């Protein structure tokens, strides 16, 4: 797919505006460290949910944790998330759901519609105390 560079540095090509994308940096973090999450969703979405088994919290019985992320008018967002010390080393999948949330203000009932999905692999390496020296 050829996408010409026409409108400047921060331009999103028209063919990619409706395609959700997810990037997690670094792609191979150690246990007890942090990752940066970069998201692009279609403009119709106003919220994003990122979930993985690598984000579980200490003492929590839930093995899958979702973190929420607000989006800009262009559908872009970023956030940091913690990789737990108790996350199992190996492959984990990070899943993105782009959602459009609407709420009836009188009845306070929310309607959530999924606009797009994406997933990327994440490799969690074993904790090493030498990463701090």
Describe this structure in words.
This protein is an all-beta fold and about 130 residues long. The chain has one domain: Immunoglobulin-like (Sandwich), CATH 2.60.40.1930. The chain is about 0% helix and about 50% strand. The strands form two sheets. The protein has a four-stranded antiparallel beta sheet with strand order 4-3-6-7, with no helix packed on it. Strand 1 (about 20-25) and strand 2 form a beta hairpin. It is globular. The termini are far apart.
Global structural class: mainly beta
Number of strands: 7
β-strand percent reads: over 45%
Encode the helix/strand succession as letters. Answer: EEEEEEE
Describe the sheet with the most strands. Answer: 4 strands, antiparallel
- Overall residue-averaged pLDDT value: 88
> What is the end-to-end distance?
45 Å
CATH class: Mainly Beta
Could you tell me the radius of gyration in angstroms? 17 Å
Strand order of the largest sheet: 4-3-6-7
> Which residues form runs of ≥5 with pLDDT under 50?
none
CATH topology: Immunoglobulin-like
């Amino acid at each position: 797919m050829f996408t010409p560079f026409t409108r400047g540095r921060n331009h999103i090509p028209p063919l990619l505006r409706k395609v959700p994308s997810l990037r997690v940096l670094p792609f191979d973090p150690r246990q007890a460290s942090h990752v940066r999450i970069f998201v692009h969703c279609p403009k119709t979405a106003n919220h994003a949910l990122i979930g993985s088994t690598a984000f579980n919290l200490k003492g929590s019985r839930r093995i899958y944790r979702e973190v929420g992320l607000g989006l800009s008018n262009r559908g872009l967002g970023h956030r940091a998330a913690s990789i737990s010390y108790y996350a199992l080393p190996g492959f984990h999948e990070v899943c993105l759901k782009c959602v459009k949330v609407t709420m009836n203000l009188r009845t306070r009932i929310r309607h959530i519609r999924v606009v797009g999905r994406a997933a990327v692999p994440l490799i969690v390496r074993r904790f090493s105390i030498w990463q701090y020296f």
